[in-house]
């Protein structure tokens, strides 16, 4: 029952405010999309040490959507979408937010592909590539979703129409 109440709370919060968009980077060897799904889709996003990235995390609100981005030498791409289910809180010495998997990208969107797309010029990911948390404008969010063919929840919503 607690899970249902939390879902309604997230949905209500999303209705009350404009959703913000983010990109969260993770090394797949440390925490992958598969780990996220295997963990009941909910996880604590922590371990962010950079002050600017922490500032961005503190700006996250309940219901904000985040790209789940695999980084590292083998894989640099958006693989899924998560939603913020608990706003920033102090955890150990850094802080954390809780996120829940919303859906996997129908097709992962590679960094090289994003850099080659003129509509993504100015994306913070390109300007500050070392940050593990970056804001994403609505325009860029929509374009990346288009390139990737959408993600899980969008497919469910289309089937209901």
Automatic annotation (TrEMBL):
Q: Which Pfam families match?
A: EVE
The keyword Mitochondrion is annotated on this UniProt entry: no
Under the heading Gene3D superfamilies, the entry gives: ph1033 like domains
Q: Cellular location of this protein? A: Nucleus
Coarse class of the primary localization is nucleus
The keyword Metal-binding belongs to this UniProt entry's keyword annotation: no
Q: Which InterPro entries has this protein been placed in?
A: 5hmC_binding (IPR052181), EVE_domain (IPR002740), PUA-like_sf (IPR015947), THYN1-like_EVE (IPR047197)
Instruction: Quote a single Gene Ontology cellular component term.
Output: nucleus
Q: Which UniProt keywords apply?
A: Nucleus
Q: Where is the EVE domain?
A: 20-146
- What protein am I looking at? EVE domain-containing protein
Its lineage opens with: Eukaryota, Viridiplantae, Streptophyta, Embryophyta, Tracheophyta
């Amino acid at each position: 029952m607690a899970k249902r109440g939390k879902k309604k709370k997230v949905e209500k919060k999303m209705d009350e405010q404009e959703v913000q968009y983010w990109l969260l980077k993770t090394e797949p060897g440390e925490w992958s999309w598969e780990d996220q799904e295997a963990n009941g889709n909910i996880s604590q996003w922590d371990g962010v040490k950079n002050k600017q990235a922490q500032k961005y995390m503190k700006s996250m609100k309940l219901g904000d959507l985040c790209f789940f981005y695999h980084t590292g030498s083998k894989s640099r791409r958006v693989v899924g979408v998560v939603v913020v289910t608990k706003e920033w809180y102090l955890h150990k010495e850094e802080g954390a937010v809780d996120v829940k998997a919303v859906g996997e990208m129908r097709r992962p969107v590679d960094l090289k592909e994003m850099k080659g797309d003129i509509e993504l010029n100015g994306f913070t990911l390109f300007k500050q590539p070392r940050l593990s948390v970056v804001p994403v404008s609505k325009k860029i969010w929509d374009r990346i979703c288009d390139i990737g063919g959408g993600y899980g929840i969008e497919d469910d919503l289309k089937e209901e129409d």
